[in-house]
């Protein structure tokens, strides 16, 4: 049921990144469920993690290890989230790092562990540790599409991004208009909701060979995630394991970008933003039971917070989501959701709402020009933008979401029945 | 599909209250859709209304009229919410009051209008006004069950409450242990979500002949609603028309209760609370597609706000709601929802979760004593209490909710298709 999502076949390898994959049999036999990223010495790694108070053991370990020395390996298992597993879960996550450290000759704190799958069951450590040598034995730079499949749980399609971008060189403190450096950006993500009994959930790994200073990379990773992964919602259920990693191996031939004042910064940010956007939107497109990919846009807000409050309230409204599924351009439900978003002193008569470019609500009531046929035509499309204009300021924010379909209920309710 | 909801057949009339009903044909011909409450002179009326910023025209008029002189009539139509109707909606709500005032000889501001039904369509004023004389012509004190049906929209069952209660008399400043006054409490409510295209939504009218001073009645109405109607949630979608009215006609033979210091106050509050609880829970029991009636209880919270934040986050989680529908005792989903409720410095290891009296999560992980069979047995019941113990304080709060079923999606998505 994925909406407008195609499988990426050709990935550009990223200098300084090799990937090893194994079938460890963590939940099912005969499927790739263990993925190791090997990063060249000198790679810079940034990450943002779930804000769920009960973040999983591997998330806690990864956050701690990120504050220490250079990261050299990421180890990712599917089939088990190692969340809600108490002290045993912490010691299992650490033991995974220690075993991989022994096999590779780095320190345990140079390794970041990630898990996704069932919550509350102990990691099958014997199987997981036995898979590590196999994954290391087949490290390669051209196996991205296998890795994208290797981190899936119940995603219906693998999710990937790969581009090469020309970044202008520097000429003193300015852009050199003639010469460019070629950099590569490749990444994969997984997630389709907190799907299946206890599945948890969103993982993303974006890599580039660009040379970006670590402090700047940290800032960029946060800002990029805020515009992409932190703006998508399927069911509003933040999982215990969400992680998004941005890796710059610094292997490209280019001068380092170390501050936002660098004239190349904007181009670098935009190139990475495209990767973040596509990989985060891919998760929505493959959302549980999704039949619609919806851009919820709030314009003319007085602040970013109120724009997001309105956008999320509408995006999470079960009544709006079921109307989307029904292709029913039900503006009363949208308006009622805007009204309960908690924004102070909002004036109904200032509100306009557009479906793509069709005005459906003007000054708080049905637009005179609106026809049911025009609304139905928009809502029949698989991709829709709902624009809500508050008439309070000049801030615009967007979030991306799906509809609520019978299939969503089936996926989440019928699985164990 | 209503869960544990029976139709009340016998209502006690309330001294000072007469009800008139008409078939005005507002949306459908041949059904009762116009209800008038006539209140004896000297009745005290309090109300709480939707916090939706875009409250409907009749809500705005009722709030304004409540600040003025004694209320003598309530006029309620179904089939049209008169919401999202702009200046025309305001003038229609006022015109309804004016016409009824002319017919009854009271002032227009002594009338409170209420509407429920489709959002965004103009009130059919000719039909509505034509229905007023009919409704007035058949005013009677014993037609509560007809009134309960007359305010329904797509509720599957009418919702009512009626009890007579002995309230001790006063002996100076103390309770007279021998003599009591008999008072009556009767009420009706409607609502089952913001159901059908644009339906809006929850209405409740609770009346008593008890003699309660208006300032105290205002305080009691707010406190009672906070414990009942403000603690139920089906889909989290606060409508534009929610109204809950508490009416004391002061016709009973008893000394007035005018402060919380009155020794009879506790008994009076508890008697009304039972009515508020039963009428608000009836709305959940008749919730859209409901197969479960769930008490979401948060214990050991440090504050009321954090208890409610956790309770509502879990109650609104689509993953928890679909698990309830599936009779799947999925504690990982509950735990993950608790973790994203935004409570600061929550410690996973302090969390216990009970299903009725079965401990499923102990110290943040699966309880050693828990078995799938025990959990499945609880979840197979139509009524369940989920208790979440935070280990942070001694505050307990409860909210009441339903599951998320295929039927919910059908009701909200398939209607116009």
UniProtKB/TrEMBL annotation, chains A, B:
It holds the Pfam family ArgJ. Gene3D superfamilies: ArgJ beta chain, C-terminal domain, L-amino peptidase D-ALA esterase/amidase. Pathway: Amino-acid biosynthesis; L-arginine biosynthesis; N(2)-acetyl-L-ornithine from L-glutamate: step 1/4; Amino-acid biosynthesis; L-arginine biosynthesis; L-ornithine and N-acetyl-L-glutamate from L-glutamate and N(2)-acetyl-L-ornithine (cyclic): step 1/1. The record marks 116-117 as: Involved in the stabilization of negative charge on the oxyanion by the formation of the oxyanion hole. GO terms for molecular function: L-glutamate N-acetyltransferase activity; L-glutamate N-acetyltransferase activity, acting on acetyl-L-ornithine as donor. CDD domains: OAT. Belongs to the ArgJ family. Heterotetramer of two alpha and two beta chains. This is Arginine biosynthesis bifunctional protein ArgJ.
């Amino acid at each position: 049921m994925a909406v407008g999502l195609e499988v990426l076949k050709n990935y550009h390898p990223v200098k300084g990144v090799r990937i090893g994959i194994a079938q460890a049999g963590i939940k099912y036999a005969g499927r790739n469920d263990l993925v190791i990223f090997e990063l060249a010495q000198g790679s810079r790694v940034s990450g943002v993690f779930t804000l769920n108070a009960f973040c999983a053991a591997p998330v806690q370990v990864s956050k701690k290890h990120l504050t220490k020395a250079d990261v050299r390996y990421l180890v990712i298992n599917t089939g088990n989230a190692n969340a809600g597993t108490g002290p045993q879960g912490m010691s299992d996550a650490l033991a995974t790092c220690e075993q991989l450290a022994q096999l590779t000759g780095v320190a345990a704190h140079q390794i970041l562990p990630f898990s996704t799958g069932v919550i509350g069951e102990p990691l099958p450590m014997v199987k997981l540790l036995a898979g590590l040598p196999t994954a290391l034995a087949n490290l390669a730079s051209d196996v991205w599409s296998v890795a994208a499949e290797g981190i899936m749980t119940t995603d219906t399609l693998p999710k990937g991004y790969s581009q090469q971008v020309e970044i202008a060189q520097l000429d003193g403190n300015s852009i050199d208009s003639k010469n460019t450096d070629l950099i590569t950006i490749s990444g994969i993500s997984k997630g389709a909701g907190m799907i299946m009994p206890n599945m948890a959930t969103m993982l993303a790994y974006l890599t580039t060979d660009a040379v970006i200073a670590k402090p700047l990379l940290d800032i960029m990773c946060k800002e990029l995630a805020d515009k992409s992964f932190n703006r998508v919602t399927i069911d509003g259920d933040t999982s215990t394991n969400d992680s998004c990693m941005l890796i710059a191996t610094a292997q490209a031939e280019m001068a380092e970008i170390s501050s936002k004042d660098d004239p190349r910064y904007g181009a670098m940010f935009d190139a990475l933003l495209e990767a973040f956007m596509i990989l985060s939107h891919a998760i929505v497109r493959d959302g549980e039971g999704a039949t619609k990919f919806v851009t919820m846009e709030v314009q003319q807000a007085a602040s970013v917070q109120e724009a997001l409050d309105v956008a999320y309230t509408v995006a999470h409204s079960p009544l709006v989501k079921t109307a989307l599924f029904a292709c029913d351009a039900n503006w009363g439900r949208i308006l009622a959701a805007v009204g309960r978003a908690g924004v102070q002193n909002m004036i109904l008569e200032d509100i306009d709402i557009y479906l793509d470019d069709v005005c459906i609500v003007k000054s708080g009531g049905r637009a005179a020009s609106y026809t049911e046929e025009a609304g139905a035509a928009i809502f029949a499309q698989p991709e829709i933008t709902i624009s809500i204009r508050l008439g309070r300021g000049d801030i615009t924010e967007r979030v991306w979401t799906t509809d609520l379909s019978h299939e969503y209920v089936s996926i989440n309710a019928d699985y164990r029945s």
